[in-house]
Design a protein that fits this description.
By secondary structure, the protein is of the alpha+beta class. The chain is 46% helix and 17% strand. It has 3 domains: 8-78, 434 Repressor (Amino-terminal Domain) (Orthogonal Bundle); 83-159, no CATH class; 171-245. It has helices at residues 8-23, 28-35, 39-47, 56-70, 81-124, 132-135, 143-159; strands at 171-176, 180-186, 189-196, 201-205, 211-214, 220-224, 227-228, 242-245. Strands 4-1-6-7 form a 4-stranded antiparallel β-sheet, with no helix packed on it. A 4-stranded antiparallel β-sheet has the order 3-2-5-8, with helices on one face. α5 (81-124) packs across α7 (143-159). The relative contact order is 0.10.
């Protein structure tokens, strides 16, 4: 995030965290190692600027964990409210644009698919099984010729059993090897927020499309419809937060 996400209340709360840590005799590096939270997250909490956190749920999770470690009682600052209102306005503006763009892409892909079928058929089907007009490129190809070619290709695919049998059970399975925070979104709406510990497992039946946000991406492994999910490649190197769209 580029803009700062803080208020007078969050800055005051952050100073209370910092004062308590110093009172207990911990440096910021020592506190980071003892509480197992990224140093930049601790600094963000103590400065009262929550811009570094990908969501309010992540911020609350680490806020509460740090608060428990320091043995203090502070209310989580309401700095995400204004940001949420602006985000909803932005999403509503983007939806109309995305819908028109999706329709354009859909029809373009259909046209390309038909062109690909015709091209592949012309290349692989012997001249003797092609309609006479199609085997001679100098003659005009008619609609009936194209339909005939498509039928020939479909028959060959069935005979060779080229159509893959994909069984979708919409099953999301996750395994956790360390502490990890998870958020599950459907159509940009937060469906579920969970915090997991080492050795825990998560199973859910959910239809795509949906989005997963995880903290400590290298500590979670999982599959969707039996296909392995990569939680590491696109994770933020600093925060280890990753967003997966399925």
């Amino acid at each position: 995030m580029n803009s700062e996400l803080k208020s007078a209340s969050s800055v005051k709360t952050g100073k209370n965290f910092s004062a308590k840590r110093i009172e207990l005799g911990y440096s910021i590096d020592e506190a980071c190692k003892k509480v197992f939270i990224n140093k930049d997250y601790l600094i963000a909490i103590e400065k009262g600027n929550y811009s570094i956190f990908p969501s309010e749920s992540f911020a609350k999770a680490y806020f509460n964990k740090y608060q428990k470690f320091l043995s203090i009682d502070q209310e989580f600052p309401l700095v995400f409210n204004l940001k949420s209102e602006k985000k909803h306005k932005k999403i509503s503006n983007e939806i109309s644009f995305n819908n028109s763009l999706d329709n354009y892409l859909k029809y373009s892909l259909i046209a390309l698919a038909l062109l690909a079928i015709v091209s592949i058929g012309i290349y692989f089907v012997p001249d003797k099984v092609l309609p006479q007009q199609m085997s001679n490129p100098s003659k005009t190809i008619k609609a009936n010729d194209v339909l005939s070619l498509v039928n020939i290709i479909d028959k060959r695919k069935k005979n060779l059993n080229l159509t893959p049998q994909i069984i979708k059970n919409n099953n999301l399975v996750l395994y956790f090897e360390d502490e990890c925070w998870l958020e599950l979104y459907v159509e940009n709406e937060l469906l579920e927020t969970r915090f997991f510990n080492n050795g825990e497992e998560y199973n859910k039946i959910i239809k795509s499309p949906f989005k997963i946000i995880v903290g400590n991406g290298d500590s979670v492994k999982g599959t969707y419809n039996g296909i392995e999910i990569d939680f590491i490649s696109n994770a933020n190197r600093l925060t280890k937060v990753n967003t997966i769209n399925l």
